[in-house]
Amino acid sequence: MKVLVAVKRVVDYKVQIRVKSDNTGVETQNVKMSVNPPDENAIEEAVKLKEQGLASETIAVSIGDEKTQDVLRTSMAMGIDRSILVKSQNPLEPLAVAKTLKKIVEKENPDLVLMGKQAIDDDSNQTGQILSALLNWPQGCFISSLKIEGNKVLISREIDEGIENLETKLPAVLTCDLRLNTPRFASLPNIMKAKKKPLDMIDIDTLEIDTSTKIKTLKVIEPPKRKAGVMVNDVKELVEKLKYEAKVI
Amino acid sequence: MEREQLEYDVVIVGAGPAGLSTAIKLKQLNSDISVCILEKGTEVGAHILSGNVFETKSLDELIPNWKELDSPVKTKVSSEEFLFLTKEKSFKVPNLFLPNALQNHNNYVISLSNFCKWLGEYAENLGVEIFPGFAASKVIYNDNDEVIGVQTGDMGLDSEKNKKENFEPGINIIGKVTVLSEGCRGHLGKEVIKKFDLNKKNKSPQQYGIGFKEVWEIKEENHEIGKVLHSVGWPLENDTYGGSFCYHAENNQIYIGYVIGLDYKNPYLSPYDEFQQFKTHPVIKKLITGGKRISYGARALIEGGLQSLPQMYMPGALIIGCNAGTLNMPKIKGSHTAMKSGIIAADVIIEHIYNNGKLSEYEKKFRNSWVYKELHQARNVKPSFQWGLIPAMIFTGIDQKIFGGRLPFTLQHRHADHEALIPARNAKKIDYPKYDGEITFDKPSSVYLSGTNHTDNQPNHLLLNDRDLSTNFTIEEYDEPAQRYCPAGVYEVELDDETQKKVLKINSQNCIHCKTCDIKEPSQNIEWVTPEGGGGPIYSGT
To answer: What would you measure as the largest C-alpha separation in chain B, in angstroms?
Structure first.
C-alpha cells in the first residue's frame, strides 16, 4: 500500500497573528512557519502504517514557493520516504489544491491519501472532501482512529453525539483529527538523514489545471476588541442584565 | 542510557551573532571543516532580542560584499538625540558633548533577530548545519576534564521526568572544539566559567542589566526613518543605572526599549514597570499614541566590560560573545564585538585543528584586536555610575571626551548584582501607575505578544537549589523581588491555604529565557536550565 500525505506550510500556531497595516492580509514576512498541526497527525499515521508493515511507501506532497521545502524536509525527518513540491508562487484555494492533489494521485497511484482535517490558517476544511469527490473515492473526515484490514478501512470520528465508527474501502481519502495520535519529534540524526531523501519539484503550470482564484479578498481586519466585563452581585442581577441589557434570554 | 552520537569538527552552541560569525568564518577559511550549530529557539532569531543600532565593522570584515546582498541591514541612522528626562520635561544634550561612543551616524537601525535569520541562511549556504529547536543541555567532558562536546536535551519527558509517548532521547554531539556562544549568562557558560575558574584573573564580578524592547507600528506623521533617540533620567532614581532607547526602523516601525542595571538596590523596584512608565513621558507618548504595539520581549545583557571578562579559552572549548561578556556598555552595542569575538575564534580553531595551534592563542589574538582596544577605552564608564548619575556623566565626559578612555587607572565594580539588594524593611515601596491598555500593558498581555510557549507537562526548568529558601528567607527579607524583576510574570507569591504562609509559585511556561532570575536572586537560589528545545519566545523583528 502506497500512502500519500498532503502537507501545508502555515504560520506556526504559537505565533501571534498580525494583520498587515494595509489590510490586504496576514503578515507572513519574518514569521515562523511550520507544518500545519493536523497534517503532522497525518504524517505520524502514515509513518506508523509503514512501521507496521502495512504501507510500502510514504510520500509527502506540498504546494508553495521554494521555502515550502522546509515542511517537506520536516515530514521526511519524521519518517516519510520521499516528497514532492508543486511549485506555485500564489496561494491556492481549496478547489485548486484538490485539483493539484488529484494530478499527483494520478501520477503516483497511492491507495490512501491522508491529510489534516483543515489548515489552521484559512480553516477551510474543504480540500479532503473536494479531493475525494474529484477522485470519486470514499472519504473519512476528522478521523480519531484508523485501522486497516486488507482492503477494509475502519475509522472513528468524533461527532456531537459521541463517536461514530465507520467502515469503508481502499482507495480512500482520510482527514485527520488532532486526537488521532501524538506526532513524534524529528530527531537530530533523522533531520540529517532527511536532507538526503529525494524531493522532487514540479512546476504547477505543467499540471495544466485551472488555479485561478474564485474568491476576492476585499479587506482583512482584526476582530473587534472585547469589551471589559461587568461584575454582578447576584444571580438576580445577572438574569436581569441578560434579559434586558444583553437581550439574550 | 546509551545515546546516539554525532561527530563534527566544531560544535557551536547558540545561533546568535557570535556563533554564526564563528561558523561562517570557519567555512570561509576551510570549506571542508564540518560545523554544526545548536539553537534552542524554534528557529534562528527566535530568541534574539536587541536594540539595535548596528555598527557594521565586523560585518564588513566577515562578508565584505554584504551591501550587494539582500541583507536586513538597510536603515542608516539619519539623526540622533540624547535627552535628559524629568517627569514632565526633556533636555537635549548637545551632540557636541556626547562621547564618540554615542555617535551613530555611520550605523544602521536593525532588527538583530531578522539579521541573525539572514546570517543563518548565509551560513547554511556555506554548508554549516544549523539545528534549531535543539537545546544543548549538558557539557560533555572526557576523563582528562577536557570539553569534548555537548548533549542535547531529552524531548518528551513529563513534569515528573517520565517518558511520554513521543519521548526522544537527547544525543551526544562531539566536536574537536566546542564553542559556547549562548549569549548573556548562558547556562553552559556559567558551568564552565565555574569549573575552569575562568574568572580567576578578574578583579571585578560580572555586571548585568535587563533590557526590554517593544516594537511599535506608529502613525506615519510621527515616524522619522533612521532617527535614534536615547535618554537617561526619569523614571529612574538617580542611583539606578539605566536609560532608554527609541529607534525609528522601516515600515513605520519604532523600537522602544529600556535597560536597567541589575545592580539596583531597592527590592521594590520593578524594571518592567519602570519601562512601562517611561512610555508615558510626553516625548514618547506623543510618538506612540495612535500606534500599535506588535512585539514585546526582554533579555539580560552584559554590563561588566573588560574588568569582568573571563578567560575565553579552556581545554577543548572557547566561550565567546556575551556568553563571556564582550558588550561595549557606553556604546550600548554588543553585536559587532560578539561577531568579532567569533571571527577571532574561527582563526584560532583553524590553527588548532589543522596546525596544532593552541586554543590559548585566543587570548593573544583578542588582545591585539580592535575589540580589546574598544573595551579598554570603555572600561571606566559603567563603574563610575556607582557615584550616581550626574557625577558619572561628568566623569564619563572627561574620561571619554578628553582622555579618550585612556586614563591611567581602572575603576572596579564593587559587588555582584545579586549582592546589591537592601532588605525590604529598609527600602521605599514604589507605587507604579496602573496600565492603561493603550500605551502601558500588563505582563500577561506582553508575554502573549512574545509568542512564548513551552510544551505543557514537561520538567520545570527554573530550579530552586534549596526549595524552602524562598519561603523562609527571600520572601521575608526581600519581599520576593522575583515577582518584580521577572519580565514575564513567572514568579508569583501566593498564600498557602493550609499553612497560611506565603509561598513562591513558578509559572515556568511563561519564561522568555531572559536569565534575570539566575542573575539577580539574592541567594543565587534559582538555577535556569534549558527547557525542551523549541520552547520559549518566538521573537521576530526584535
So the answer is: 67
Q: Are residues A32 and B134, on separate chains, in Cβ contact within 8 Å?
A: no
A150 burial (CB, 10 Å; 0-12 / 13-18 / 19+) is exposed
Chain B residues closer than 8 Å to A30 by CB: 45, 111, 113-114, 117, 540-541
* Mean pLDDT on B365-377: 96
Q: With contact defined as beta carbons under 8 Å apart, do B7 and B328 qualify? A: no
Please tell me the distance from the alpha carbon of residue B220 to that of residue B174, in angstroms, as a whole number.
52
- Percentage of chain B lying above the pLDDT 90 cut: 85
Using alpha carbons only, give the angle B128, B15, B465 rounded to the nearest 5 degrees: 135
Q: Mutate which of A40, A185, A195 to disrupt the B interface (most B C-beta within 10 Å)? A: A185
Nearest Cα residue to A114 out of A124, A127, A99 = A127
What pLDDT score was predicted for residue B391? Answer: 87
Three-class DSSP category at A42: helix
pLDDT on residue B396: 86
Within a domain: A14: yes
**B445-528 placed in CATH 3.40.50.2000:** no
Sign of CA dihedral A73, A74, A75, A78: positive
Judge: A191–B131 Cβ closer than 8 Å, yes or no: yes
Interchain CB distance below 8 Å, A189 and B540: no
> Is A189 part of the contact surface with chain B (CB cutoff 8 Å)?
yes
Tell me how many domains chain A contains: 1
Where are chain B's structural domains? 5-66+113-202+309-378, 445-528
Mutate to test the interface with B, among A188, A192, A221 (most CBs of B within 10 A): A188
A249 pLDDT band, cuts 50/70/90, is confident
Q: Specify if A148 maps to a domain.
A: yes
Whether residues B42 and A32 touch (CB distance < 8 A) is answered with yes
Q: Report the C-alpha gap between B532 and B461 in whole angstroms.
A: 9
State whether B168 and A187 contact (CB < 8 Å).
yes
Contact assignment for A189 to B4 by CB distance below 8 Å? yes
The predicted structure's pLDDT at residue A195: 94
pLDDT in tens, A67-109: 999 999 999 999 999 999 999 998 899 999 999 999 999 999 9
**Owning domain of residue A210:** 2-218
Contacts of residue B227, defined as CB under 8 A and 6 or more positions apart, other chains included, come to B77, B78, B79, B80, B81, B247, B248
A21 touches chain B (CB under 8 A): yes
**In chain A, what residues touch B540 (CB-CB under 8 Å)?**
15, 30-32
- What gap in Å lies between CA B233 and CA B216, rounded to an integer? 23
User: Is cis: bond before A183, omega within 30 of 0?
Assistant: no
Residue B52: is the preceding peptide bond cis (ω within 30°)? Answer: yes
Contacts of A191 in chain B (CB under 8 A): 131
Q: CB contact, 8 Å: A24 with chain B?
A: no
E-strand spans in B426-533?
Answer: 462-464, 491-495, 502-506, 526-528
Predicted local confidence at residue B276, as pLDDT: 98
A14: chain B residues, CB-CB within 8 Å: 42, 451-453, 538
Number of H-type helices and E-type strands within chain B: 17, 24
Q: Would A232 be classed as within a structural domain?
A: no
Q: What is the CATH number of the domain that holds A123?
A: 3.40.50.620
Show the DSSP H helices in chain A as ranges. Answer: 37-51, 69-78, 94-108, 127-135, 188-194, 235-240
CATH number for the domain formed by residue range(s) B5-66+113-202+309-378: 3.50.50.60
How close are the terminal C-alpha atoms of chain A, in Å? 55
Q: Report if pTM > 0.80.
A: yes
> Rounded to the nearest 5 degrees, what angle is found at the Cα of A221, between the Cα atoms of A219 and A227?
150
Separation in Å, CA of B168 to nearest CA in chain A: 7
